[in-house]
Amino acid sequence: MNMGVNLAGISLKNPILTASGTFGSGEEYAQLMDLNKLGGVITKGVANVPWEGNPTPRIAEVYGGMLNAIGLQNPGIDVFVERDIPFLAKYDTRIVVNVCGRSESDYVEVAERLADQPVDLLEINISCPNVKEGGIAYGQNPHAAAEITKAIKAVAKQPVIMKLSPNVTDIAEMARAVEAAGADAVSLINTITGMKIDVRKRRFALANRTGGLSGPAIHPIAVRMVYEAAQAVRIPIVGLGGVMCAEDALELILAGATAVSVGTANFTNPRITEEITDGIREYMLEEGVEDIRELIGAVR
Q: How far apart are CA 258 and CA 212, in angstroms?
């Protein structure tokens, strides 16, 4: 039985990845689970310089998930190269670096710095709803998304995955735009912009006022958008959004995803990625599926 997939020319032992921002670079989780069992680790967003992120409070629990307005806090590329890449390189799993920036030059600088590093893929975050500059500005405009894709592809040595925002009118249009600009894959969906108000204090629950909604509440939207993107492009898709169990991951695969990222569920169960991988294997055995590639986009 084969669980391996090919993501933009990079082979994964199985389709399960960790979603950026929910797993750090894996060091804490490695104490509780075996990173070798994952198809790959997608790191927290990495910028060209350290980012402090947004003011607190930055997280609020809501029905069916959570809101976050972390603002892509990270220590910057220097610390990442010195500390996190050597740690991940010890494991038999693919390293996918999530790249963030406030301007085109920020993104390009990080891609250039990573060109000679032992990482397998770059995931370019143009869809964070909690960063005023850059980020979502690229993710909501097809032309801007295409331009940033071209700029990164001109310097990147690894395959480039463009992470798309669900906060758009037509996800297929965005997917086609970055594919035409040279993207090797797309990942979707990032969080959906939401808001929570504390009725007792009569104030916003988040200092940023709005935050990104993640968790099971957004899963049906993710399935729909992965399907729409899969009908629009030929490049591989990494599906994510509210994946809490193997069945959720299989939905995204059947909709057209080659790989699946698991995010918010990591906060409630640090071993969830292992359990989802095992659950997919059990499903394949029960259904007589010899190769997981038979399932990718099987629902038309």
A: 24
